[in-house]
Amino acid sequence: MKNPVGVCEVFILVMLVPFMSSVNGIGANWGTQCSHPLPPETVVRLLVDNGIQKVKLFDADYGALRALSKSGIEVMVGIPNDMLATMAGSMKSAEKWVSKNISDHLSNSVNIKYVAVGNEPFLSTYNGSFLRTLYPALTNIQAALVKAGLGAKVKVTVPQNADVYESSTSAPSSGDFRTDIHDYMFQITKFLNDNGSPFTVNIYPFISLYIDSNFPVEYAFFDGQGTPVNDGGTTYTNMFDANYDTLVWALQKNGFPNMGIIVGEIGWPSDGDRNANNEYAQRFMQGFMTHIAQGKGTPMRQGPIDAYLFSLIDEDQKSIQPGNFERHWGVFYYDGQPKYRLNLGTTTAGALVPARNVRYLQRKWCVLKDSVKMDDPSIAQSVSYACALGDCTSLGYGTSCGDLDAKQNISYAVNSYYQINNQLDEACKFPNVSTVTKDDPSTGTCRFGIMIEQYYAGADRRLGSGGLLAGLVLLLLTVL
Ligand SMILES: *[C@@H]1O[C@H](CO)[C@@H](O)[C@H](O)[C@H]1NC(C)=O
Ligand SMILES: *[C@@H]1O[C@H](CO)[C@@H](O)[C@H](O)[C@H]1NC(C)=O
Ligand SMILES: *[C@@H]1O[C@H](CO)[C@@H](O)[C@H](O)[C@H]1NC(C)=O
Ligand SMILES: *[C@@H]1O[C@H](CO)[C@@H](O)[C@H](O)[C@H]1NC(C)=O
Known about the structure:
alpha/beta; 13% strand; two-stranded antiparallel ribbon; 15 strands; binds 2-acetamido-2-deoxy-beta-D-glucopyranose; globular; TIM Barrel; 2 domains
C-alpha cells in the first residue's frame, strides 16, 4: 500500500491490454430476479475483473445503472414487455422514459449504447399479445431519443427469440421470417435498418435439445463429432452457425443484407435438467468463446460476433414455467462464485474471477430431524411448502442433487426455504420435521447453499421475508 499509484497503473495496464486485442469483446446479461442479489457495486466489479465490456439489463434498474457510472462498460437498457402498451400509447410516456431512464444516467457517466424495446415479445407463449404494441412503442422510443438529442448515440433494438425466423428445409439458405408474423417482422426490421439499428437475436441450442429428444446432441456444441449439415457446398458443424446464418439469409431475402446482428443471449444452464450440468455448460460456453475469439464469424458473415452471455449470475426467483433449468443460467452461482473454468480471453488468469468481499450468513443449515418418522403426514406438506417458496430446482432426475435419498431430499427443501428467509429461526420450524445444524449436509455435486446477506436497494426495496414467514406461521397452524 506504499505506492497506490503504481498498483493502480499496473491494474489499469492488466485490464486494458486484453481489451485492445479484441474489437468487440464479450457482453453479459445481468438479470435481477434474485431473492438475494449481490450488491450492484459487487456485480460491476465482477464484470470489470472479468474483462466483460458490455452488459445487457432487462429493465432500467436504478441501482445497476448507478453502479455502472464511470465504469466504461457499454450498456443495453431494456424496456420490459409489460411497459410496451404504455410506450406505444403515448409519446409523452416514451419521452419520460427516455428522460428518466436514459438521459439522466448518461449525464451521470453511464455508457448507454442501446435500448432494447421488449424482450422476445413475439414468443408464442405470449399469444400475440405484443404484436400490435411493439412497433408503435419502438417508433415512439426512437422519436423520443432523437428529440433528446441522442439519435446518433443511443440505438434501439428488439431482442427476438430465434423462432421469429425459420427455414423450410434444414439449410440456412432457406431462411425467412416466420410466415405467421412475416409482415410484423418486416416492418420492425425495416425500421431498425432505416435507423442504423442492429437486429438482436437470442440463440439457444440447449432449448432445441430440451424440447426435442431427437435433436443431435453433438450438433449443439462447437467441438461436436456429429454429421455436418451441407448447404449447397457450405458445411455447418454446429447449430449456432447454422442458426445465425439462417437469420443472415432471412435478412438478405427481405432486403437487409448489411444489417448488424447482435446475439442478445447465448448460454447453457448448469442444473435443473439432465442436459443441464457444469460439464455441458462448460463445453458449450468455452466452445463458443473459442469460436468467436478467432474473429472469423460464420460461413455467411465474416468478422467478429457481437454477443452477450446468458447469463452472468443465477437468478433464484425466475419463473420455472419453461423448466427447472431457468434458475441456473449463470456462469456464476448466486454468490458470484464461478461454476467452472471458462477462459473468456479477457483476463491474464484465463479463468473466471470470483466476486469479491461477498458477505455470507452464518455456516448453518436447516435439515431433517434424526427422530423424524418418514410416515409423518406433515412431511409432504412441509416439503411442498418449502419448495414452493424456496428453490428445489436442483432436485430431480439428472440434476446436481438428483442422487439424494428421500431424507436428504427433505433436508434440501427445508434448507432452501431457511436460507431464502435469511436463516431466521422461525423458518426452520417445520413441525416435527426440521432442526438447525452446523454440519454441512452437502454431498458430491449437491451443494447445500448458505445464503448471502440481504442487500436492500434503498427505496427500491424488495418484498422482505416478512410475507413468506407469515405463510409458514399459517402452515404451522394448519398442520397443528
Ligand atoms: C424507468 O424504468 C423503470 C424500470 O424499468 C420503470 O419502473 C419506470 O417506470 C421508468 N420510468 C419512467 C418515467 O418511465
Ligand atoms: C395464452 O393462451 C393460453 C391458452 O389459451 C392461456 O392459458 C395463457 O394464459 C395465454 N397467455 C397469455 C400471456 O395471454
Ligand atoms: C427427491 O425429490 C425430487 C423432486 O421432488 C424427486 O423427483 C425425487 O424422486 C426425490 N427422490 C427421492 C429419493 O425421494
Ligand atoms: C409430532 O410428533 C408427536 C409425537 O410423535 C405427535 O404426537 C404429533 O401429532 C406430531 N405433530 C404433527 C404436526 O405431526
